[in-house]
Amino acid sequence: MTRINLLSKRSVLAVPGSSEKMIQKARLLNADEIFLDLEDSVSLPEKDSARSLVISELNKGDFNSSSVAVRVNEQNQLIGIQDIKDLITKASSKFTSIIIPKVETPEQVTEICQRLTELELSLGLNDQTKIQLQIESARGLLNVADIASACSRTISLIFGPGDFAASMGMQVLNIGENPINYPGEDAYHHVLYSILTAARANGLLAIDGPFSDLGNEPGLKHRSQLSASLGYDGKWVIHPSQIEVVNSIFTPSEEVFEKSAKIMAHFNHSNANEKSAGAFLFEGKMIDEATRKMAEMIYSKGIAAGLKPSMDGDDYGKA
Ligand code: COA
Ligand code: MG
């Protein structure tokens, strides 16, 4: 899968759909994606008014972020079904995707997609509404591979660490942190890896969940580094102060980006020569087709994040 054309989704800002003030503020922020939340950040009495507010704010448009998503309520509840119905009926084409929480089986996904198709057909819409799926329970994790391949509308898998910790019986009180007194490095490594693998096997983005301790920037950096290093595309943030930290960790460093561009150029240069070997030395290290692929991956992440190579390809080849 080539990633060159993917949009960057390094920071994904959660904005409570009941807060007009935060929605206005979010319009001006530089998160790669924002999502207006109708689920856990909205109290039960405010569910209907938040839905109306979100629909009216979506119709006004004017958001800085290139992606604006909406998280709906659980799809086994009437309120969640109404969320999707109203969004498609009253704000179609004003948002980029719908985030579905607490996904546990592929059948749920298929059912949601069928409902979307029926709704779109009934309204004469050609759009194929995209969906993002949150994996946040033991059952969801067990079924993640089948969930990831259940519907072609799916664009990303998102890890939900708070609900997941509760579902597993982990002793965690700050969302996104290791369990209290956890003696190891990372209690979520297996979960992150499984979600990432299911995502990549189906050409999807993989997004890490939030980190709730706003005063703990080193902690946010550490957690971001863990998922960014594995290959995740981005991480949810809950406050404007977390956006830049996360953006910077999910962007390859200038040094690594430049080196990737150089490896690709040297590889192409050498390939132009019919007699060249498949493997050769570059700055003392063996590079081959696998190295070129790794470099291309890093390079494309950098390009999507707005980095620019300092030379054009030919000049790298000569350098
Ligand atoms: N989106 C947009 N604006 C936000 C924001 C967010 N997620 N979080 C804070 N802000 C704004 C505040 O409104 C405030 O604006 P102002 O300077 O114009 O007054 C400014 O950023 C500073 O906020 P601050 O006073 O530090 O925090 P707060 O007490 O207003 O809010 C939270 C703290 C945690 C309640 C808030 O950040 C929040 O609700 N985050 C999202 C929670 C969520 O969606 N959870 C579910 C998904 S994980
Ligand atoms: Mg959740």
From TrEMBL:
The organism's taxonomic lineage, starting at the top: unclassified sequences, metagenomes, ecological metagenomes
GO biological process: oxaloacetate metabolic process
Gene3D superfamilies, sorted: Phosphoenolpyruvate-binding domains
Cofactor: Mg(2+)
Name this protein carries in UniProt: Unannotated protein
SUPFAM superfamilies in the record: Phosphoenolpyruvate/pyruvate domain (SSF51621)
Keyword Magnesium: yes
Domain HpcH/HpaI aldolase/citrate lyase positions: 10-240
Pfam families named among the record's database cross-references: HpcH_HpaI
Keywords linked to the UniProt accession: Magnesium, Metal-binding
GO molecular function: catalytic activity; magnesium ion binding
PANTHER family: CITRATE LYASE SUBUNIT BETA (PTHR32308:SF10), LYASE BETA SUBUNIT, PUTATIVE (AFU_ORTHOLOGUE AFUA_4G13030)-RELATED (PTHR32308)
InterPro entries membership: Aldolase/citrate-lyase_domain, Citrate_lyase_beta/mcl1/mcl2, Pyrv/PenolPyrv_kinase-like_dom, Pyrv_kinase-like_dom_sf
